[in-house]
Structures are given as C-alpha cells and as structure tokens.
Specification:
The complex is a heterodimer of chains A (393) and B (263). Chain A is of the alpha/beta class and 393 residues long. Chain A has helices at residues 20-31, 66-74, 106-116, 121-135, 150-164, 180-195, 207-213, 231-250; strands spanning 3-15, 39-51, 55-59, 81-86, 90-93, 168-171, 199-203, 216-221, 224-230, 265-270, 280-282, 287-294, 302-309, 314-319, 328-331, 334-341, 349-358, 365-376. Classes of the chains: A alpha/beta (393), B mainly alpha (263).
C-alpha cells in the first residue's frame, strides 16, 4: 500500500515559554541540539499510517490533541519524540485564518497561498476563475481580509485548496464555520475528491460529517489513541462515551431502593448476551428481557421495562398492567416477567434497559434496575430508532 | 531528535513575499516612498552640515571630491544593510500567523525582508548616484560590473545576520531593543563618516576585519576613484562571509522547526 504520511511513536511536548528565563533555556537547549522535554504533553506515542485513497476522521473532545496532530502531519511543528514521514503534497486548512495576512486583499492572499501550495503564477491565472467561483464572495475579493467574516475567510481558503488538488487534504474543524450551502458544496467537493482517489484527513465534532466522508476514524483521548478502526464503530463508541459521561454528571435519579423495597427486583437481565459485558446486539436482533420480582404479600406485582439512551433520554417503555399481562408465579412470593423486543429497531449506540417493579395496583414504583447494552450496525440513519418506512414513487 | 525532510525553497512564493514586503513597507502608504528617498537625504544633509561646516572635518582622501559625495557613496549601502537587518529581525514574529498555519521553509521570510529593503534602497542609491553626477561629481560608471557583485555580496552578508537575528528574536524578545543601538555602534566604527586614513594605525588593523569597512571602502574606490583593490583581502572576505552565511543558515534551521512552540 502506498503510504502518504506515517507517524512512528510520535509525541509532542509543548515547552514552557512564559518566562524569559524559560525561553532562554529552551534556546540554549536547542542550540546544543537537545529538544526541550519539560512542558505540557499534548500527544503521546501516536502511531498512524495514512495510505493513498483513505479517508480518516479524527475525533475527540476539546483539548484531546487533534489540532496538534494535524500540525505534526502537515509539518508545521516537529515532534518531540518519534518520526513523521511525509511523501505527499499536502493541502491543509488549519484553524481559521488559513494563514492569510489581514491587511492584504483576498486576491493578494490567494496568490500567496497558491504559491505556497506549489502553484505557478500561470497555473493560478488559469484557475483563478474557478477559485473565485468556488469562494463566491463577490467583490469582497478586492477588500482586505480583515474586513471578511469568518465564513468568508474559510470560503476563500478552501477555494484555493480545491484549485491545487493536493494528494492529501487535511482540514481542521473549519467546514462548520461556513453556512449550510457552502458546507454542502465543500462536502460535495470532498466526496468527488475522494472518488478520484484523493486522501482525506478530517477533524470534526460532527459525527454526521465524519460518518459521511470517512471510512475510518481515529479517536484521540488525552493525547493518546483511544480507538482506531471502522468509522461506525469508533464514532459510536465515542458518542456512547459522551453520553455516559453526561449521564454520570446528572447522577441517576433512579437510585435503586434495593433490598428495603417491599416489591423488589430479584433478577433483571438481558438473555442471550451474558458473555459480553455490556451485552452487544446487532441492530434488528431480538432482545429477550427477564424481570423477577419479589412480592411480600404474594399478590402478582406490575412490571415495567423500558429503554433509555445512555444519557438517560427515554426511548420506549411498556407497563405490564396496561397490556393486561400477569407475571408467571415461580414459587411463593416470586414472580417473573419475560419480554421480547422483536427485531430491535434501535439505531447503533449505547443504551440502557431498565426494569421497574410496582405494586399490584400499578400505583407506586418500588424498585429499579438497569443494564447497559450496545447496538451495533452500519447505518447512516439519524436519531434513536428506526421507524418502519418505505420510499414511494 | 528527528530530522525532517527539508522544506523546499519556493521561487514563486519568495517573489510574492518580496513584492508583498515592498508594497507593505513602501508603496501602500503615502509617505512610505517619499520617506524612503527623503530620510537618507535628510540624514546626509545633517551629517554633511555637522561634519563639514561645523566640525570642519578633513578627510585627506576626499579633498578633491568634497565631503557629500564621499559620504553618500557609503551611506546608502549602509542604510540598506542596517535597515534590512533591523526589520528582518522581527520578521518571524511578525509573520507568526502564516508560520503557525502553513508549513514552508521559514527562512524565506527574513530573506524576503532583506531582499525587499535592499531593492528599495538600491533604487535610492542609483538616484543619488545620478544626482551626484549631475552636480558635477564624476562617477566611474564603468566599474558597475564590480559594484554589482559587491552589493550582492553585501546582501548575502545582511541575509546571514538577519537569519541569526530573526531566529534569536523568537526566543529572546530583547533582540528588537538591542539591535538598533548595536547597528548605530557599528555605523560609527565603520569608515562611513570618515576615511580609513583618519584612523590610528592600530584601529586601521582592526577595521580590516570589519566586512562593512571593507565593502564601503571598495565602493568608494570603485565609484569615486576608479581603483580596483580586490586582491587577497577580497578573497579572505569572500571566504569569511561564505562560511558565516552557511553557519547562519544552519543556525536558523536548527531552530526553525520549533518556532511554532514559541510564537
């Protein structure tokens, strides 16, 4: 395979540079051929190969080191440890501003940027109309860039890159600045670029964009690779992690009342998936749930089973009482409900199955139990649940 | 420590940088271009008034040609040299927006600043030479074929110093404050306002190691007196500056990969 860029055990430490003394020491260290190793560790031991034709999405929370990784890949910064090998022409669009000089007109900046990307003056003249058409900022092209809106800067920056047709396109979270129609234009262009064998590295917080444009994803967490692989599994794991984190922050209001409850849950589990923890189901599989409840007065209790997203958003719930269902009596005081969710229509992601016990009248909730599970699958549908649908003529 | 493939020097980009620098410094503001001609003229007027009228400075070599042409021939190249180094020293920090977002050979930035300043000052220099000729000084135009390589060599020397200064400036911000007085000191220790013949024997020996003294003396000899004095001394100078320039480039490149961390 044709490797365009590879990182081998790359780490990046940003040296401390606030005090003049620290800067002076760093200067002397560099002069003596040493790399300053004191400071903030932003990336640690990253290994990555980008091969021709690949499209890779880089995801992670703010401050995870995504932008630093891109700067290393483009060669703007040097790694503290490890090696970065580049064998491709790179068109990079990092952060806002795109390296434009605010006092000069858009046109001057286009000229500058194009020559940086290796375009000769003649090539630029040939493609200038395309660039201006793509940017579509009208007469603003003759205004100084400092008068541009941030969206216009991105439009122009991206337009120059489209004209240069690099082997490898690297973009940071910049597309999100453009308006709806420009974003669509960019996505269309990138799709076409990928079809023609281009290679893409994209940082985005929009999982929709990542799933749409990338085959693979790299999840960076705290400066290290948390997960790397197929775009769907990585983005799903990432979203699930986020949801779990916000759920933890909310602190479940469903603190099980536990043993003290009179109608307490004896057993609650998802069948057929005891081996995995949390259980994993493919989308469209059946899920069997078993709920056993202890009844102090031996009257049949009411059971509730429901599904919530990992962040606690309710998706679906059903109450036995409302559907005229009575539990099976196992022995004195012990009752059992079994429920099958047929061909589960949940979209891939992380969910929790919840079981609740209620008194026989279905008035008071006594106990709650929760089991996390994951749904996997390759789909670009959005939301929580697949609604039965068909496309009509 | 890693060695990255050296980012390449791009001719078109460099040209654009130089043009941009010239426009930014001289053409895009009204006074810029006028000031470029006016500032050295004013200084020249003040110096010649102070030294020839008030101090009655006597320069043995300049008896026949007068003080003003004697000063002017050396003054413009010095201005190009000194100004280019001072403005290039802050060029890396001034262009941090570009350096932090685009990967390219950063040495092009100080080199473009030096080049732009040289080009603009040489325009002034040619104008001054023409004015001097019209005022009756006979300029030895024929020796331009030696003056041009001499000035190119001076440009190389300025580039070398600019590379060092701009790289250090990223780490030690005081360079911007230290450099102008240093250049003034250098100006007064170089025979620009006076001739080498005015100097005591021992200082003359020291001045021989000052490349700028060598440059301005040769310029005077060529343009005013039509003398060629480029023997062994010239060879030593060429060798010294070549080695120094190579070292400066290595010095700059040792730091350039780390600029982003410090900007």
């Amino acid at each position: 395979m044709d490797t365009l860029v590879s990182l081998e055990g790359v780490s990046k430490i940003y040296p401390r540079v606030h005090q003049p003394r620290e800067r002076m020491l760093a200067f002397i260290a560099l002069l003596l051929g040493r790399v300053p190793e004191q400071g903030a560790v932003v990336l640690n031991d990253i290994n990555l190969n980008v091969v021709r034709g690949q499209s890779l999405g880089i995801i992670g929370e703010n401050g995870a080191g995504k932008s630093t990784l891109l700067k290393l890949l483009t060669g703007i910064i040097q790694p503290t440890h490890g090696r970065v090998l580049t064998k491709a022409s790179i068109g990079a669009m990092l952060e806002l501003g795109a390296g434009f000089e605010p006092d000069f007109s858009g046109l001057d900046n286009v000229r500058m940027k194009a020559s940086l990307l290796g375009l000769s003056n003649r090539e630029l003249d040939e493609r200038l109309d395309d660039i201006l058409a793509f940017a579509d900022i009208g007469d603003y092209i003759h205004e100084p860039v400092k008068h541009y809106s941030s969206g216009m800067v991105v439009r122009l920056g991206f337009a120059v890159i489209t004209a240069c047709k690099p082997d490898l396109l690297i973009t940071d979270e910049v597309l999100s600045v453009g308006d709806e129609s420009f974003q669509k234009k960019c996505i269309r262009w990138i799709e076409q670029f990928l079809q023609q064998g281009g290679t893409l590295l994209l940082v985005s917080h929009s999982m929709y964009v990542v799933q749409k444009l990338c085959q693979k994803a790299l999840w960076i967490h705290g400066g290290t690779v948390r997960q790397y692989g197929d775009v769907f599994s990585v983005t799903q794991a990432y979203l699930a992690w986020h949801e779990r984190r916000s759920a933890r922050e909310k602190e479940s209001s469903l603190q099980a009342t536990g043993d003290a409850a009179s109608y307490r849950i004896e057993k609650f589990f998802l069948e057929g998936a005891q081996d995995d923890n949390p259980p994993i189901y493919a989308m469209g599989e059946d899920i069997n749930v078993e709920l056993q409840i202890y009844s102090p007065d031996d009257r049949p209790p009411v059971g509730v089973v429901g599904v919530v997203r990992a962040d606690g958003t309710p998706v679906y719930g059903v109450v036995s009482d409302n559907e005229g269902i009575l539990p099976v009596k196992l022995r004195a005081h012990y009752y059992r409900f079994r429920l099958r969710l047929n061909r589960i229509g949940l979209l891939p992601g992380s969910y929790s199955m919840r079981g609740h016990s209620m008194d026989p009248e279905g008035v008071r909730l006594f106990d709650s139990c929760e089991q996390v599970f994951t749904i996997t699958g390759n789909t670009k549908e959005v939301g929580y649940i697949r609604l039965p649908h068909e496309w009509l003529d | 420590m890693t060695k990255e493939k050296q980012r390449k020097f791009d001719r078109v980009f460099f040209q654009n940088l130089v043009v941009r620098q010239i426009r930014q410094n001289y053409l895009d503001n009204l006074t810029g271009f006028t000031w470029l001609i006016l500032q050295p003229l004013l200084l020249l007027g003040v110096y010649s008034f102070v030294f020839s009228t008030i101090f009655k400075a006597r320069i043995p070599e300049a008896m026949d040609i007068g003080f003003v042409p004697y000063l002017a021939i050396a003054f413009w190249p010095w201005m190009a040299f000194s100004e280019s180094i001072i403005s290039a020293s802050g060029s890396i920090t001034a262009n941090s927006a570009l350096i932090r977002k685009v990967a390219f050979a950063t040495e092009q930035i100080p080199l473009a600043t030096v080049t732009a300043t040289f080009i603009m000052n040489l325009v002034g220099y040619v104008a001054v030479l023409v004015v001097l000729q019209l005022l009756g000084t006979s300029i030895q135009w024929i020796y331009l074929f030696l003056v041009i390589p001499l000035i190119i060599f001076m440009w190389v020397f300025a580039c070398a110093i600019a590379l060092c200064a701009s790289a250090i400036q990223v780490f030690v911000r005081d360079v911007a404050q230290i450099l102008p007085p240093l250049m003034t000191f250098w100006f007064f220790t170089t025979p620009i306002l006076y001739g080498t013949a005015n100097l005591p024997e021992i200082v003359q020996t020291l001045a021989r190691w000052n490349p700028m003294a060598w440059f301005v003396t040769r310029l005077r000899e060529l343009l005013l007196f039509g003398e060629i004095n480029m023997g062994v001394g010239g060879l030593v100078m060429v060798l010294m500056i070549t080695v120094f320039s190579w070292l400066s480039l290595r010095f700059f490149q040792r730091f350039s990969g780390h600029f982003e961390d410090f900007l």
